Every structure is written in C-alpha cells, then in structure tokens.
Fold:
Amino acid sequence: MPRPLPHLFFLFLLLFIFNAFSKSPWKFFEHRYRYKLSDVIDADRFVKKERYWEAYKNGKLVGYVLISKDWTPNLVGYSGKHMETLIGIDTEGNITGVKLIYHSEPIVLIGLSERQYHEFLKQYKGKSIKGELRVGREISMDVITGATVTAVVQNSIIVNSARMLAEALGILKVRKVSRRRIKKTYERIPWEELLKIGAVKRVRITGKDLGLKTDEVYLDLYFAVIDPPSVGRNLLKDRVYEFAMGKKANFVLLIFSTEGKVSFKGKGFARGGIFDGFNIEQGGVTHIFRETDYRIITEKDLKVKDLPSFKEGGLFFVNSEFIDPTREFLLNLIVPFRVDGEKKVRNFSVPYRIPGRFLE
Amino acid sequence: MNRRDFFKFVGLGGAVVGIGSLLPSQSVAGRRGGLKYEVKPGELDEYYGFWSGGHSGEVRVLGIPSMRCLKRIPVFNMDVATGWGITNESKKLLRGKYVGDTHHVHGSYKDGTYDGKYLFVNDKANNRVARIRLDYMETDAIVDIPNCQGVHGLFPQRYPKTEWVVVNGEFQVPVPNDPRKPPSKYYGVHTIIDAERMEIVCQIILEENLDLAATDYQGKYSMANSYNPEQGVTISEMLAWDQDYLIIFNWEKVREALRRGAYTVVNGVKVIDGTRKTGYPGLVLRIPVPKNPHGVNVTPDGRYAISSGKVDPTCTVVDLELVDKAFEGKIKPEDCIVAQPYVGLGPLHTTFDGRGNAYTSCFIDSTVVKWNIEKAIESPRRSKDAIVDIIDIHYQIGHIMASMAETKEADGKWLVALNKVSKDRFLNVGPLKVENDQLIDISGRKMKLVKDEPAWLEPHDCIIVRRDIVEKVVKHRHDMFEHPLAVTKSEIIRKGRHVIVKMTANAPVYGLTEIRVKKGDKVTFIVTNNDEIQDLTHGFCISNYNINFVVAPFQTKSVTFIADKPGVFWIYCTNFCHALHLEMRSRFIVEA
Structure:
C-alpha cells in the first residue's frame, strides 16, 4: 500500500490551541484526542463532502466517515457537552470503526479509566446499523457499568449519527409514513380494557428475566401515550391531564411503576439531568429524556383506583421529530442489577403504538 | 395535534366546579371526614401554604397536609444563606432596612380566585409592602408606605383581577408626621397600591385606626376593622367606647375623588380626606360593631363580611348586598348587620369551608368554633344556636385559615390554627419556645385535629392554595437574560479604581481562577450560574470579606464592596453542587 500523502488523506485536529486550555479552569475536564480519518476505516483516500467524507481504497469507494457533532450535536452527556465521535461505515451499513475525539465527561469521577471507555467503543466495529444496537443488549456495558448516562448518550450519538448518514445516502431505507391524527373524542374506558387493547402496556421484570435465580420483582411498570383523551383522561385526574396537554410537546408519555427493586427513573437525572434508565426508539433513532421534559406523577395524580400499590411515576414530554407515536416505537428499559456485588445492566425493549381506534 | 379542543372541554369542566363550590353541601355533604394527612416519601402535598413570618421578616412556603416547610423566602430581612441584603439586587429593594414584621400574606386574584402570579405581604415595622413573584418564589418589589404607621391588614382586589392592593395603618399618626400635633390630629390611613407597578395610587385618612383588611368579590369595596376610633394613645383610652367600627371604603368614590382632584399631596402621595365631618361624601361607611374588633373576613360566596369581636364573645355578620343602600343613606349603617352569634371568648378571625359554615378562632378560650352562617341569621342575636362544633387547640389561637377559604373556590378540606404558644406540645427548648401550627381536618361535620407543627417566630397568618394553581406558573430555572448583567463569558473589566469581575459558575468551576485587585479598589462581582440542571445552585463566598450569596440555575447576582484588606482570599462555593464542590474555588488577591 502506498503511503498516503498527508495533505490529501489526513485531517489533523491539533490538541486544540493548547495555551488557551492550560489557563482554563476546565482543563482537567476537557479531553481532546488526535485522530485521522483512517482511524475508523481502512482507506487510502478521502473526499470531503458536506458533513461527511467518502473513503476510497485503491480507487474504489469502500465507505464513509463522519464526525457526530455534524449530525447529532444536541445529544449531550453529563457535562452538557456533546461527545464528538468519529464514525466509519462501509457501503453496506456496517460500522468499520468508532473513535472518540472530544469529550468532557467526568468519567474519572465514577471510577472509570479512559482505557475502559475506549474498550467500550471497540465493540461497535463490525456491527450493522441496519439492526438493533442497544446498550445492555447488542452493546455490552460490562466494561463501563456505572457510567450509564454516558454510555446511553454515546450509543445514541453513534447509532443516530450513522443512521442519519446512511439514510441520506440511501443505504438505509426508512419508511416515510405520514403521521396519523389522534382522535380528540373521549370515551370512558376501564383500566382492564386499556391494558387489554394495548393502550397501556405493562412490563414486569423479575430476577429470572435477568438470568438470576430469584423470583424477586425488579420492575413492574406501566406506560402509555396519554394524548388520546380516551387514554389520558381515564388514567390521570383532569387537572393533571390538562396540565400535560397544555405543555408544548409532540406527544406525552406516562410511565409509572407499582413495585420493584429498581427505579425506572434512576438517579442519573439528579446529577446530570438525564434519565439513564429508559429511552424510546423508532427506526433506530433513540430519544433520550432530560429533566426539562419531565413532570413527577404520584399516586394522587392517577385516576386509576385499583392498583395494588404505587411506587413512582412521571410524565415525559417528547419533542423529537423522529418518533411518531401513531407508529410502533420501543420503550427501552435499562435495568441495573448486581451479581455477586458486581454491577450489570440489561436492556428490555417493549413495543408500543397508539391503538388504531384512537386514530383518525 | 390541536390542543384547543381540549381547552374548550376543560373550560366547561372548570365552570361546573366553580358553581358547585358556591352551593352549599353538594357531594361533600354528609362526608364523615377522615382525610388522609400522611404524605408518604415520594408523594407530594395537595396544597401550597404561604405563611407570613412575623418579625423574622420573611415569608414561608409549606406543603399541606404534611406541614413540611419547603422554603423560606427572605423579604424584609437579611438572609445570609441566600445573600438577601448582601447582593446589589436585594439592597436596591431593601434600601438599608433589615427589620421587617410580616403579618398578612395574600395571593393575587383573577375572578375571585388565585391566579398564581404574586404574593403580597405587609411590613408593620418599617411600613412597607412587598411583592413576591410566584414563578421564582422570590421578592421582586418593595414599596414604602409614607404618612402611615403600623402597616398591618393587607388585602388584594379579588375581582375582576388584582389591580389594587389595600393596606391599613393600625397606628394613628399626624399626616404629615409633625411631632407638634396633638393625638386628635392623628389619623389612620388606608393605602391603595397599584399591584403591577407597585406604586401608591392614593391614601384615605380618617380618625379611626385600621386593623385587619378585606375586599369584596365584586371589586366594589375594601374593608377595615377599627378598634381605636377613640384616637386614644393609651390602652385605657383605646378601650373607652363600647362600640367601634367596621369600616367600608367605596372604590367608586375613591376613583371619583381622584378624578375630581379631591385630594392633597403629602410626601408625594395623593391623600383623600375620609374623616367624619369633612370627608369626601359617600367614601367611608362606618358600621358599629362591638368593642375592639379584630378580624374581618368575607364569605366565599361574597355575600357576608364577618367581623370578630375580640373583647366581645360574638361575631358580627354584615350583608354586603345592603351596603350600597347604607352608602346611599336609604338605611342606617347598623341595618347592614344581619346576625350576631355568640361564638366564645376572644373571637379573632373567621374562615370558611364553602359549605355555609364559618370557623372562628377564639383566643381566650383556645378553641376553634364552627358555626353555620344561615343558622346564625335565623337565630336571635347573641345566641349560641348556630354553633355546630367546638374543638380545643393548643394554645392561644391567633389566625385561622382553611384551604382556598379566601377564594370563591373554598373547598372545606383542611384548616390551620396558628397558635401563639406551644407550652408543653414539644420537647423543651429553653425559655424561648416555638409556636404551634395545628392542622385540622374539616371535611366532616366534626372537626378533627390531626397534626402539630412547630413554627419559629412568628407566623401570623397564612393562605392555603391548591397545588395546580401554583404549579402552572412556578419554574425550575431563571430566565437568564432577564438580568441585564447575565454573564456567559468570564472577564475582568477595570474602570479606574472600579474593578468589575464578570464570572460564570458551572459545576464545579468558577469562570476565573484568579482575580487580582489593588487595596482600596471598589470591586463588583457579577456571578451567573450557567448550569441548567434543575436544583444545581452555586454559592459564592469570599473568605474574610463578609460576603455570601447563592445563585440558582441561570440566576445572576452581584455584589459591590471595597477591597480594604490585602492578602490572598479564597472564594468558594457554599452551596453543594458537585462531587468536586470542595474544589470549586478561586483566589481573590488584594495587592497591598
């Protein structure tokens, strides 16, 4: 292989204007890494396009490279900053490599090393973006358990950015279905009926589901899109429902749990404002919730009377353009548990869509 | 989707609720009581309680029914935790006065119920009125009340919305305050304040002192009780007459007098004469009530004003529908009185359940007396026939307030008795003890005492507001650019000997690691919390410089001082913010 000429093939990001950083109080938190485009794909020539590069090897197009901040700058971690990631995909939509080029996540504070983080990213190589890529399932968190917020956001950055590019290039076909309208009529529907027709979904996770020997309940959770009045008004007291509908949002998700060892809300939001225990996903694009999208729901806010118990709940306001609740989407639950004192997580995905009877 | 259609639906539902609450009984009738008062971990209260703080000068926010104190809002006092009285922003409002005595806190209204926009509170000590904006739950305006002392009773206009707030002057003084004047030239003052501009519209002076205040539900009148129409300056003189007055001010005539220029300007304020002989005609109605009355409260249906006796064991019920006739001279002022039930010894204040019952606090008896208003009207004067139930409280009750009772949406669920002494109700904490606020379930026919809550000096009054009303407006973070000096980029600007330090605070670092000034420099620190995360508040303390304040998410505060001590002084974050909170520091270096 002929050695490529630097000015053609390389894009160096300097260790960013070093002097500026040395006086910044943020220096400790800033992590910027040297990279070249060939770090994430085996290629000898790159052609700059708008927001990505074409990668050629021996004159043949072998794939593409992108920098995530050009695609998903709004996905931010604990630090409130985007984790800039260099991503390579081949022409079939397989990830050829992933490299973190900038982040300011305080991972050292949660007992991780930079090396562990890079280990975590290695597992993306060879995975297809046409399939599911979820933290706690296809993507293991074993090397970085504890850093769930960072991992969940990082995963979304990689998957969402790569898919957006693949979609733009036609590698990935996304069905474009125009969104159906939700009926505004109200009918009284009892709780059991709402469950039966799938307007409310229940997820019950026990130790067995986590591969443990115990039957102990880890999570008993209910969720629903409350926008159809026949769903929302039957679940929530009127004042709460009206409050929810008065907020600016594409749709509103109600989640509550009645029992279990695990909190679906988690505690990540208390520090960084990001919910690390769950997210929603459609067409491979993940939507992560922040505390600005959240309003607490307690037992008194519910109209449902016959629940055996109540643990915690919330309304989550979805502003993403990428999730259409009239089509099926997934609620991904990232359930933490311990095996012999060691932290593990497992992802459970539950499909949901607003039942057809509530749509026009 | 279109949300407007829901709102139509909602509006209808709201109207139905509103009408329902005006009718007696309805679904709540016959209920045996027994509301749940335990608020379990993770559960939230049903009501916000806003408490005055007496001579602590503050306002407190409680959750009802848990009675948990959720916040203390500094108003007229200095508060070294938040920096109220230390920052430039708060000093601008306080103007050097740090003694305050808050008695009555009331919310702003729209159409007879709270709109969640503001709270208003009086300062009896330094004669001021403050406004608290409820979206941030922070004091945003303070107005001085000249020509007046003992600024006490306060009440906002209830209908159609709060444009005016009235406050009463309990201590008569010369107007203007000329020390040569004899007590016969001392006046009580009724002050009207523009609620949005927080400026004084006008004052009405009269011989009587003015105690508690109220407004009607039609935007026509404000009211005051007077216990010293004698113009006495000693207690014996104040108790001389057997009858004192419930005084009603006619707002139509106030506007007319202002239009016609029937006022004199004293200390920059338009003062209208409301005295007995020379006062503006039709402006003031004096309804005779038994000796030394205290509270005046209006029923949620807007029909009756109830004045409490204090040294007479009765309440006086005035029919507000008759007041216009009395103003026109068609009937005598005393003909507006439709009932005078016996309630007990030392009746002070009355509150309501929206089901036709009144609850009066009796200081001397240490009781809450529940009585039926219609029954009282049917019964002979001074009879006990209207009494429904009596409950002992512990001890020496002052104010009393039921949930939403000062609105047309009174819901008859909870009642708080604000008791002046706790005696043996809590562990002994030495000679100076706390007070005791007691929570009473009034949902049934019989009242039920469910909770004792210690209160530090010294709540006088409170209001209990349904949670949804406040939740519609209250925010998690400031609007950053509402403060004209908000900092997004840290820098030091020198203007001669004035050093302006603009500094961001982002967990866990301040935007500058080192600030150098010369001894004798005037230094202004402007600090903005750039963290968006809910509840991530930063502190800012300069060691040995007697400066501390906190900045909530997206909030900006500033402080100006003379750097008079040379040396290295650590600035540090006083409000826990991050795992590396202790490392959140900067050096303030004052060169000799």
